[in-house]
Amino acid sequence: MTTSAIHNVPRPVGRLPPRARGSVAGSRRKVAGAPSGSALARTDDGAILDECARRAPRTRGSPERIGKSLRCSGAPVRRQDNIRAEFPLTRWSTSPAIFGLVIGVLVGPLGLKLLEPHVVEDGGLIESVSEIALLACLFCVGLRLRVPFEWRFWGLPLRLSTVAMLATATLTAAAAHILFDMSLSEALLLGVILAPTDAVLASDMYAPVDVEQDAVPFALAAEGALTSAFAAPLVLVVLGFLGLDDPGSGVLGSVTLAGIWSVAAGTVAGWLLGAAMSRWIALLDPDRQGDFLEEMIVLATVALAYTCALAIRADGLLAVFTSGLALSHGGRLRRSVRKVVLGARVLRFAGRVERLAAVLIMVLLGALVAGVDLRLRAVLFALVLLTLLRPLAVRLGVGGLVMAAGQRRPLEWFGARAAAALYCLALAVNHGLGGSFAHDLAGITLVVIVSSIVFSAVSALSSRRASPGAVDL
Fold it and tell me: How far is residue 204's CA from residue 95's CA, in Å, rounded to a whole number?
């Protein structure tokens, strides 16, 4: 690597690894262990991170090494100093979710009665509101998941969003069949509705507290986004088994092919559109001076990705999420040191939209659960799901991956459901579920969602207090 080539390396976002910090002379830093006078000893931050990415161990996704690999790859690590810069509300930690639930209960049927929604009677409106909020959350999460597309980083989230999600749906269906005497297809529908976790709550509840746990919030956020995007096609597949989807879709082959097409087409369409928009931003504003232009293009990307997905009968949620990923990565799948492809103002704007949508869902959930007949069996089912089924599903999904106890525990005990579960519930109700089963399904789902939010918030706070190196965000 020549000196001229080194100085042309773009400066990445993120902090330097401890071993790469040295004496500072202007903008030049020295890598620990580099020979004096060498080109590497005279590099800037970008070249240091480029060299760290080259020297980083090629792990197979072990979370013990992911935190260090994130720093050496140039990926932005969300520490205390840049969390508040990009997402100011993150310092509230779990407060927005609980605060939104309390506000919803106060303005709902048990309080001022200003908001009295019902899932069965107002299913169309609830589906639209939850879908809009979910689209905003998934796109914004995609914008900030700027980790390189390598198996050592994405292997754990993909395991959680595929194997662990299917295991959760299956185990939940078995428990529902036993506790509520549902048929297997009805129990499977409930299991699929409750399978996706929430990406926004995962980011807020499990902010990184030390070097070794940086992989945990990323894995939980990516798992929440992927499971939320996969949930709608799975719900439609189960509805097809029940004969409530499109005519003739009850055949196993057609239902399976429709689900595969929805996921594959949504992924490809969203990525291509996001990559095209990223190229357009680079052509119109190569110096990244026009924040307003970027904001307008970002908003247009959401609408275009969702519209294109609907036009080809693909998964709109997955298309919006992958378009956000493509924008955040500049439309490239592989590169060692990345440029800042989106301005800080755009990321802050996306963070505020994401939190606003999440709080809106919390208020709606609080108002909905206030009008539900609370049954002891539903609460027991929620506890079984959160304390037994979720940890078991995570262990099945992680498999033989070597993990420290401090990293495995947050993965097992985080089970917050929110926008995706509410959207899937409304989607199922609007496809013609029977009156009695629809009311029972709505009541059980809402109790589990609210219980999961409270349970995950408490477990996150306790784990953060138990960490010796905890950072007060």
Answer: 9
